[in-house]
Amino acid sequence: MSEKVKVAIVGSTGYGGVELIRLLASHPTAEVTSVISSSSAGAPIAEGFPHLSEIRTDLLDDVDPVVIKSKADVVFLATPAGVAAKLAPSLMDAGLKVIDLSGDFRLKSRDSYTEWYKKEAAEQQFIDKAVFGLAEVYGASVKNAEFISNPGCYPTATLLGLVPAVAAGFIDPSTIIIDAKSGVSGAGRGANLGTHYSELNENFKAYKINKHQHIPEIEQVLSDVAGRPVVTTFTTHLVPMTRGIMSTMYATVQGEHTAADFIGLYRQYYEGRKFVRIRPEGTVPSTKEVWGSNYCDIGFAVDERTGRVTIVSVIDNLVKGAAGQAIQNLNLMMGWDETLGLQFVPAYP
Amino acid sequence: MSEKVKVAIVGSTGYGGVELIRLLASHPTAEVTSVISSSSAGAPIAEGFPHLSEIRTDLLDDVDPVVIKSKADVVFLATPAGVAAKLAPSLMDAGLKVIDLSGDFRLKSRDSYTEWYKKEAAEQQFIDKAVFGLAEVYGASVKNAEFISNPGCYPTATLLGLVPAVAAGFIDPSTIIIDAKSGVSGAGRGANLGTHYSELNENFKAYKINKHQHIPEIEQVLSDVAGRPVVTTFTTHLVPMTRGIMSTMYATVQGEHTAADFIGLYRQYYEGRKFVRIRPEGTVPSTKEVWGSNYCDIGFAVDERTGRVTIVSVIDNLVKGAAGQAIQNLNLMMGWDETLGLQFVPAYP
Amino acid sequence: MSEKVKVAIVGSTGYGGVELIRLLASHPTAEVTSVISSSSAGAPIAEGFPHLSEIRTDLLDDVDPVVIKSKADVVFLATPAGVAAKLAPSLMDAGLKVIDLSGDFRLKSRDSYTEWYKKEAAEQQFIDKAVFGLAEVYGASVKNAEFISNPGCYPTATLLGLVPAVAAGFIDPSTIIIDAKSGVSGAGRGANLGTHYSELNENFKAYKINKHQHIPEIEQVLSDVAGRPVVTTFTTHLVPMTRGIMSTMYATVQGEHTAADFIGLYRQYYEGRKFVRIRPEGTVPSTKEVWGSNYCDIGFAVDERTGRVTIVSVIDNLVKGAAGQAIQNLNLMMGWDETLGLQFVPAYP
Amino acid sequence: MSEKVKVAIVGSTGYGGVELIRLLASHPTAEVTSVISSSSAGAPIAEGFPHLSEIRTDLLDDVDPVVIKSKADVVFLATPAGVAAKLAPSLMDAGLKVIDLSGDFRLKSRDSYTEWYKKEAAEQQFIDKAVFGLAEVYGASVKNAEFISNPGCYPTATLLGLVPAVAAGFIDPSTIIIDAKSGVSGAGRGANLGTHYSELNENFKAYKINKHQHIPEIEQVLSDVAGRPVVTTFTTHLVPMTRGIMSTMYATVQGEHTAADFIGLYRQYYEGRKFVRIRPEGTVPSTKEVWGSNYCDIGFAVDERTGRVTIVSVIDNLVKGAAGQAIQNLNLMMGWDETLGLQFVPAYP
């Protein structure tokens, strides 16, 4: 076999990083040659993640663009907000292709970033270079890109569920309401009262109402697709489970469209895209049906009484919402089939 | 102490019945004198519910209005849909006060019942006698009532969260969207694939979209309060937990009202009603904060960008959503303080 | 009604403290007059525990023996290991009765404390004063005591399951193996990777094998009961649930004893003690059957093939394993019925 | 690529069958050509398992040895106890290789089968033909076998944790006590009160004490390895999680052996066997660290105070405890590397 493309992962001790390691372990044309963590450099990665025992026996590297370039061709950044903004430019300058899983390069407006993230934005020239890696919508731009900004977990489930309907004018964008729910792994591996087992088990809670930093990301894409500014109501909830996101979305139907019409529209829009599965009429997906996989499953119900459509979209937040989608983008960047190394069957039950 | 009021429970082997037993065990002026189950009559109740060992050592009685009347003054019906419709009349004829926890007497229209429940409706004369036991809204009618129809779990959380705003005209009723989530105990103790642990654990699912039998119950009350027909969008989801309901509700604000205005309005509406707690601005409740108690906690967020209010209302579905509210209604029927025997502090964590 | 006994709780922002508040809220002859937390003094307790909204509206007090004495007659210490060792003496000096829920006064040997807790032990004279509050075994000493050391959660479940058999010589103490399992709330409210939801959910893990600080506590009592030194094998595991402990215990039967013999022995030993329930032959309890209550339920199986008995003992770690047992001890100290304010029916499901 | 080996799965609508489908979907040299279910024949498999949407679009076949032979070379039986006993002979007669995941051919003694399974045993001649597929112990027999009896889930975790120590005389076999815990998927997909979500969530329970049908299977192998009859104490518990088994095992150490000695012994015994990972001293594995993978991870603690060793062994019950081990056996039967198609990294978290 020809040589594999070498991949480095910055932020290997977070859930996004460790999921990249899991998925890339069975990738046929890419291999992870460096796992990087500034906080744990020098330690064996399997020490903090015993599930990797005898699978990865290497030590964590420190963050150094020159060293990374000597070991890898492509680098994934699975770092907290604010880190990639500073790190990505030097990695690109070193000649690396970069796929950033954080929110640092998703918003085209620096002001919007500062408003929602409460941090200083990246430099505009690098923001401009970043391609928003929602492959099923912006696939053409992703091909041949050198720098990808990987979408957020909530925006992935939400936008894949809304874009075809907005693009086709099937729904009134001003009426969109998004009620989103996520498993706890979306909050990362940081330990605080908000991720404490006893506080979350047997509990269901709403958080960051009208204040979640994924709101401007969703609105940016919907506005782009609609051709005019779209604002939405977006609420996030925490579900007592580890993985999975569901966006339940509501909008007023424009014109006369049945659930079957929506299904037809979406099947056409996503034709040839293996990772979006449109469910048959009368059924909607649950999160477990995509657990551990790169699928986004979508279902519809139209209510004649109210004139509204309800759209249910589910993903595994760590796969299609993070690491899996990032690998999908790697595949497209490299000119490979987008499903390479990602054809996992969901783990059920 | 003067003699306690005697209470019988039909359906003592379901979750609603067994929760009535738990709560009434510490009621100061009522006592359970007969636990009844047609399917398990003759067996010790603690056999199927070992948590009741040495607490209740009696055998389950069969359903017989004359025998019940000889043992009790009031009877709770915690039976599946369709049973109370046939049973309640004979119990009332026998001179018993009746509190029905099922949906059989909630809808004033027999056609509506048949449409949503797919069963034959109760006789109109008994439907007409039934007082809808949402005490914080219809408290005056509950006092001195002989026959109470206890509200459904979803309607309780939803209506307590919406009624004051609809009554005051703070929101446009035609824009109401209700995204509701429930723990699994709401599905009852029946064993099927839909209640199988491995199917629900680490899973989040939507069900009965636009088809849930609680929709007409919610709309009946909202229409009554609004003074004109209200239709709503209502979606139910199953959360991997046992107890708890959250209704996340959306509506367009009419006029200029801030979250503080909503808080003020609701505090005024529910003044003196101990079981509704309105959260301070900037916070919303989670389900665990009412676990095991009769509280309904409500919080608000108003988004100036969209002109919409988000209302979060939580209850324990087995307490305020079923057995607790039924006892609250008993208290009111008997002329007692509505909080008697119900002042449980939520179990946290 | 005559005046209630006034109670203060030090450590009110931990799970033990907040459970004391929950249980004491319905105690007929005691009332909580001061909730104390050195770390959060001055803040409303309901701010950190919204489930207490409108139930407790007072502010957290700071730790000051003189002030506590001015407000209370009895003080509960629900503090981390090492705190009570220093604090309890000054509280006793101030004339308060003290019930310590920590491990600081459980071990009679200061060396043993230092070896297992890795901290400096309390003064010997105060250790000597402390009565070990396992009421079903040492009830006579608890009555009239001024200073109680409340047993640990694991020792409570374990000792109630072993003491009668050891005392009667039904089992060989040298063969005892204890396989214990606990819900996560036993680890307290501190946030770290060991209490992170995503690390514990859908996970079962063993920890502190042969090193748990409850080992010497268990052995101290078993040795006392056996009249000779007993060492045991004791393993602790973490279960993905919030509350509940099960100790599954193994020992070689001495003489010919059937499960029925064990049941008879235990029923006799615990006669009149309401909080221990011995299950009928052929059944063993599960943790949910005591959830939220002060019960300890015990069941037996004897295997003729191996000559061993298997004893299963369950408690709610926050009630019988902590706050509930502490209140039971308060009741006995005050000369009241030990069940006062503790007759909760377990919450099921 | 050369043609793949064709595989049929009987019992495709149970958890074992559907896990075989998941794992075989990425097998490089085998492919599933027929999914079979007598109860659902004719229906699309994705109808009952929507996670397979667009992955498997075929219909379920009925059970017919001749038809199976026309479609496949090897057949997996993932059927309830009692079915394979009758079905396997006809499949072998039809010329198929058979791997049975049920308990029907594990016990060499028909009397023992009848005693523990309460069913009629298979014919002795077929029992004699069956090779017990615990590859790390009986690997030589598995190679070239035509008929494999795949070990039970509990025996797999337990035996891999005990065999080397028993074989080397490190422990006294008469002292072995096995405290085993399993996720709920081990109980299968049948819906009953014992698998009801609300009964199991936030609950930990013991079951079938001294009566589990895996006891004779464990003892048969231990007796074989020890060269003399071994009886054990074996207790099973249900953990509120879907996947994972932990066996915590206790035995008296024979001679002077430290934890390091055990580690050395096991590493030597399992040298070259990729699916057994021995943990370094001072650490033991948790179930999540093997979730979704074919690994069995084992750790040790030796207590000088008691002279006992504690051995902790974990597997994913549906993978190494069922479908994964079955595929490992397929690989060995076919003369392939035993890891083919099984090198999944555990899904963490």
CATH homologous superfamily of the largest domain in chain A?
Dihydrodipicolinate Reductase, domain 2
Kindly provide the radius of gyration of chain A, computed on alpha-carbon positions and rounded to a whole number of angstroms: 20 Å
Count the beta strands of chain A: 13
Strand order of the largest sheet of chain A: 8-9-7-10-13-12-11
Treating each run of at least 4 consecutive H or I residues as one helix, how many helices of chain A?
12
Secondary structural class of chain A: alpha/beta
Largest interface: A-B, 42 and 42 residues
Main beta sheet of chain A, described? 7 strands, mixed
- Return residue spans of chain A where pLDDT drops below 50 for at least 5 consecutive residues: none
Give the overall form of chain A.
globular
How many domains of chain A? 2
What name does the CATH topology of the largest domain in chain A carry?
Answer: Dihydrodipicolinate Reductase, domain 2
**How helix-rich are the residues of chain A, as a percent range?**
25-40%
Strand content of chain A: 15-25%
> Can you give the mean pLDDT of chain A?
97
Oligomer: homotetramer
H and E string of chain A: EHEHHEHEHHEHEHEHEHEEHEEEH
End-to-end separation of chain A in angstroms reads 36 Å
Question: Would you state the CATH class of the largest domain in chain A?
Answer: Alpha Beta
GO biological process, one term (chains A, B, C, D): L-arginine biosynthetic process
Main location (chains A, B, C, D): cytoplasm
GO molecular function (chains A, B, C, D): N-acetyl-gamma-glutamyl-phosphate reductase activity; NAD binding; NADP+ binding
Protein name (chains A, B, C, D): N-acetyl-gamma-glutamyl-phosphate reductase
